[in-house]
Amino acid sequence: MAKLYFNYSTMNAGKSTVLLQASHNYRERGMDTYLLTAQFDNRAGDGRIASRIGIGSDADTFAPGEDLFSKISARLSQGPVACIFMDEAQFLDKEQVWQLVRVVDDLKVPVMCYGLRVDFQGELFPGSAALLALADEMREVRTICHCGKKATMVVRMGPDGKALREGAQVQIGGNETYVSLCRRHWREAVGDRAAPSA
Predict the structure, then answer these.
(1) What pLDDT tens digit does each residue of the chain (198 aa) get?
(2) Which of 102, 125, 150, 173 is most buried, most CB within 10 Å of its CB?
(3) Largest Cα–Cα separation, the chain
(4) Domain spanning 4-141: CATH superfamily
């Protein structure tokens, strides 16, 4: 039975590595896959998914507001696909997540999404919020903080090396921009955020 999966984590946890390995496993068994990534994230090159450990694959791209049900239906008309892999899924909008639900339910093709859960301010990305609400299965891809605890948060570093507290939700970057931390060290980096008193 086809399902919608959301594999989430912080930066530098190996999400793209896991995606590429899973796609390879299908292809090794003679089953085709369809890879998609965010159009504006071209750190690895246009239409390319790459991992920090050096593996990569060509992919199609999706743009904000693009109809993914139509895009995937057009791809399926060219031949069968065993699984669809979506990298940078945090950049989906809510309607696009509903389109992926239709792909799973109506076209009977599994969709595996990989992306960040929260931004550098500890807020859910719109795509991630929709996936948390609608996915059939969710899996955390784990990484660790410098203290050895599980990292669940990410900070965006400014030019001065200090954690930023404000800015646009989306800013493409890698190790030079983002650091994954446990919640305690994230709070320390951005300044303790105490709960408001009742």
Answers:
(1) 899 999 998 877 778 888 899 999 999 999 999 999 988 666 555 777 777 777 767 788 999 999 999 999 999 999 999 999 999 999 999 999 999 999 999 999 999 999 989 887 888 999 999 999 999 999 988 888 889 999 888 887 777 777 666 665 655 545 557 788 888 888 888 887 654 444
(2) 125
(3) 59
(4) P-loop containing nucleotide triphosphate hydrolases (3.40.50.300)
Residue ranges of the binding site: 9-16, 87-90, 145, 147, 170-173, 178, 182, 185
Residues 182, 53: Cα–Cα separation, whole Å: 23
- Give Cα 51 distance to the centre of its chain: 13
Binding residues for Zn(2+): 145, 147, 182, 185
Options 66, 88, 176, 188, the catalytic residue:
88
Q: Cα 20 to the chain's mean position, in Å?
A: 13
pTM value is 0.82
- Residues facing 124 on adjacent strands: 118
- 123 included as an active-site residue: no
| Sign of the torsion angle spanned by Cα atoms 40, 132, 11, 49 | negative
